[in-house]
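A reminder from the course coordinator: this example appears on the midterm review sheet, so study it carefully.

Given structure:
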């Protein structure tokens, strides 16, 4: 099977050392396997995503020597398609409309960050019928209903990477407690959950290996559940260690001090960046 992986940053800030590590790892694994390395802009957060950040990301990747294959996919080009596929493909009794406040919903669909408690939706609107959706209502996944309908053989997926090589079983009790009824779309506001967009894109792009940071480790089960509901293939997941600052905190977009552009301006070479993140020379 051909090896296809992707680097999928959100263009909401400059790339930092953590992104560089993720991108180099995915690129090198693809090249070592004779496979493809794709670039995708996860720009469904239309307020915070900026073209100048997307341009900066491409510039940094080129500087690092990480050439990508084929055109760049931009999630913002596909939002209507994600929504219509959600309507068409997911059995409708797994979805329900939700009118809970925007801030509740924002916290539920935001790409999860390490150290931030993920707010499991309390189920206020779970009783609502699918066809009672009003303009502005979000659509949520009824996770308990979906889990109850999937055969046990569907609740496992292939995983490689340090410390978790092999196969991971999805624990339904943990998934309900940690993830809950995620928002998959919000009508009229062009908001599509990262979970949904990434699953559809990975399938459309033929991604066989998802290589990304450990911060997304706990949220992979919901993506696998969506793949099962959509009838899509499940890639192999590889979660890598996170690059941390001197205090041991995970780097975030706001850590401009670790931005690649800063190291570049100070005269660092791509080989220096590899060394800084603990990767061998290519
Ligand atoms: N766009 C996500 C992020 O920047 C990564 C998504 C993924 O690799 O699946 O955290």
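Designed residues:
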């Amino acid at each position: 099977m051909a090896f296809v992986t992707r680097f999928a940053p959100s263009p909401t800030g400059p790339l930092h050392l953590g992104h560089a590590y993720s991108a180099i790892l995915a690129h090198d694994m693809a090249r070592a396997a004779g496979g493809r390395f794709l670039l995708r802009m996860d720009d469904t957060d239309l307020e915070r995503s900026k073209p100048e950040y997307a341009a900066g990301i491409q510039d940094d990747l080129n500087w690092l020597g990480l050439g990508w294959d084929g055109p760049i996919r931009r999630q913002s080009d596909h939002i209507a398609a994600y929504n219509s596929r959600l309507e068409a493909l997911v059995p409708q009794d797994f979805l329900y409309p939700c009118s809970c406040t925007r801030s509740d919903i924002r916290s539920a669909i935001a790409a999860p960050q390490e150290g931030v408690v993920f707010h499991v939706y309390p189920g206020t609107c779970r009783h609502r019928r699918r066809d009672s959706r009003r303009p502005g209502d979000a659509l949520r996944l009824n996770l308990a209903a979906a889990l109850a309908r999937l055969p046990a053989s569907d609740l496992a997926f292939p995983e490689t990477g340090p410390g978790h090589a092999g196969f991971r079983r999805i624990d339904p009790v943990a998934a309900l407690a940690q993830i809950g009824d995620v928002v998959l779309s919000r009508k009229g506001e062009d908001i599509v959950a990262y979970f949904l967009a990434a699953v559809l894109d990975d399938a459309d792009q033929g991604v066989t290996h998802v290589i990304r940071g450990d911060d997304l480790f706990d949220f992979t089960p919901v993506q696998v559940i969506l793949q099962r509901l959509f009838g899509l293939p499940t890639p192999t997941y590889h979660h890598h260690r996170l690059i941390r600052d001197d205090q041991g905190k995970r780097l975030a977009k706001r850590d401009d001090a670790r931005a690649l552009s800063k190291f570049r301006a100070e005269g660092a070479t791509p080989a220096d960046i590899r060394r800084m993140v603990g990767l061998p020379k290519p």
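The pocket of glutamic acid is lined by residues 8-10, 42, 111, 198, 210, 212, 216 (CB under 6 Å). The chain is about 35% helix and 15% strand.
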